[in-house]
Design goal:
The complex is a heterodimer of chains A (198) and B (319). Chain A has 198 residues and is mostly helical. Chain A is built from six helices and two strands. In chain B, the strands form five sheets. Chain B has a four-stranded mixed beta sheet. A two-stranded parallel sheet of chain B has the order 1-8. A two-stranded antiparallel sheet of chain B has the order 3-4. Classes of the chains: A mainly alpha (198), B alpha+beta (319).
Chain lengths: 198, 319
């Protein structure tokens, strides 16, 4: 009778210890944690200015530097109003972001040699324009940083050259332009009598 | 009737039953070849050599996998001379081995591809493919939106501009299968999978039976029905023995991920040329490579995965 009482105490105790030691959900949680840390690494912002070896941005030589015309000492006052017909830059037809975007949503109103800063207050140079693009296109920017979006050349296990967003997408009209395809492959030769049947 | 046949046999001079009671001299001294057989054999070997324009050294050349270092050097030297005589230029025939801890993988963003065929022609130029008859390792299939039936696709589309509305494009080339059916059927082991995952062909060992072409479900292999025609000024002189060195008639060739480029660290030619950056290449064993990241984070699929060929070529959707 006494031994049965002991059994009633010991069996649940052993079961509890077993359950604790097995820790059924432990492996899964660890995997999830690892995945989370990887995801966190993925969205970690760039820490250095020289992180991406990018080419020189394709700026037109005739209108740069912008400060030559747009400057505090020049007679072009800052105009935040959206207008259809510009006096200069007539080649630019803004087709980006619909009616919500205007020149000064990206270009710095006080210093046109730069783009608008991020929250750190540091003006963005044209060489780092991808930082500004990433402000709206965050997921694409994340993919670009890891070479999933956009093009890279160079070495698969070494130095790579990135293409800037603006190398492929004109920032004023970002849709990728259609291309003329290369010639189609030749069809295998078939005798005329066979060809007629098909 | 049967009596007639028996009587004919009995009177026949060439009857196998006829025995004249003497044992011939040759049968006592082992298998000595008679003069007639020797002459016929020698003439046919010499005749075959003469017709195939195959040098004696090429005839006795070993399989690439079994070659010693000396044999390899000797073969490369001979091939360089052969190519120089044919194209008038100095060739580099590389034999770079696989890089350690490397398994090459490829990914293609099916949403980005615009079907411009730049990759097709970059591949032709890089890999010295025949211009006439035309050999192109990459086929760009055009599908109607919403349709994934390969039978409904075409490779002969020719509009003024691409991409066309209502269509999408899927380039297909050798899928570098981990469980490659083409290497299993080769009766002479002229094709095999390298340790870095590239399926290669030893053109000098290939007998041109085309079993591998029948086995490949992706139409990833091409046969040289005639001598390949490549303009001498268009030839790429930086080559690899298992890759883009000039081929001969009656051998099979295929995409090798540009083995002459990737073994020295470069991207394949099709990756470098793609204007939309839809093509991605890298080391599957490196968790930080773009290819590994794509497989981990994007929606991917492999062509005809139900066949268990286990391609190392992934199609993916970036967004």
């Amino acid at each position: 009778m006494k031994s049965r009482k002991w059994t009633l105490v010991i069996v649940p105790l052993v079961l509890c210890i077993l359950a604790l030691s097995l820790d059924v959900g432990g492996g899964l949680t660890e995997a999830q944690l690892q995945e989370d840390s990887e995801a966190a690494k993925d969205i970690r912002p760039p820490t250095s200015d020289k992180e991406f070896p990018v080419p020189v941005p394709p700026l037109p030589k005739t209108i740069t530097p912008c400060r030559a015309c747009h400057g505090p000492e020049k007679d072009f006052p800052v105009n935040f109003r959206r207008r259809e017909n510009l006096l200069v830059h007539t080649n630019i037809r803004l087709n980006h972001g619909g009616i919500r975007l205007w020149c000064l949503d990206c270009h710095h109103p006080e210093n046109r040699n730069y783009l608008l800063p991020l929250s750190d207050g540091k003006n963005i140079s044209f060489e780092q324009s991808y930082l500004l693009c990433g402000k709206c296109h965050g997921t694409i920017y994340r993919d670009w940083r890891y070479g999933i979006h956009g093009k890279r050349t160079g070495f698969w296990n070494g130095a790579k050259s990135y293409y800037l967003c603006v190398t492929c997408h004109d920032p004023h009209n970002p849709r990728f332009k259609p291309l003329v395809p290369m010639p189609a492959p030749k069809k295998p030769w078939t005798p005329p009598e066979v060809r007629a049947k098909h | 009737m049967s009596d007639e046949i028996i009587s004919r046999l009995n009177h026949s001079e060439v009857s196998p039953l006829k025995y004249d009671g003497e044992i011939s001299h040759s049968s006592l001294e082992g298998p000595v070849m008679d003069r007639r057989t020797f002459l016929v054999g020698a003439a046919s070997v010499l005749g075959m050599l003469a017709v195939s324009a195959c040098s004696w050294e090429e005839f006795i050349q070993n399989n690439f996998q079994r070659m010693t270092k000396e044999e390899m050097e000797h073969t490369i030297e001979r091939l360089g001379e052969e190519y120089k005589a044919k194209y008038g230029r100095d060739f580099v025939v590389g034999v770079e081995g696989p890089v350690d801890h490397t398994l090459f993988g490829y990914a293609l963003d099916i949403q980005r591809c615009i079907g411009c065929r730049r990759c097709v022609y970059a591949c032709v130029e890089e890999n010295n493919q025949s211009r006439d008859p035309q050999i192109q390792y990459i086929r760009v299939l055009r599908f109607k939106d919403g349709d994934m039936d390969l039978e409904h696709s075409t490779i002969y589309y020719d509009p003024d501009e691409v991409p066309q509305a209502g269509y999408y494009y899927m380039p297909v080339q050798c899928q570098q299968c981990a469980n490659a059916p083409c290497t299993k059927v080769c009766p002479v082991k002229a094709t095999w999978t390298e340790p870095d995952g590239i399926v290669v062909v030893d053109y000098n060992w290939c007998i041109g039976c085309r079993y591998c072409m029948a086995a490949c479900p992706y139409m990833g292999r091409w046969f040289n029905f005639t001598d390949p025609v490549i303009p001498a000024d268009k030839i790429n002189t930086v080559t690899h023995y298992l890759g883009n060195r000039p081929r001969m008639r009656n051998v099979v060739e295929k995409c090798t991920f540009c083995i002459q480029r990737v073994r020295v660290g470069k991207y394949p030619a099709c990756v470098e040329v793609c204007p939309v950056g839809a093509r991605k290449f890298g080391n599957l064993l490196d968790p930080d490579s773009e290819i590994s990241r794509i497989i981990r984070t994007k929606r991917v699929f492999r062509l005809k995965s139900e066949l268990n060929t286990q391609p190392k070529f992934y199609y993916f959707f970036a967004s």
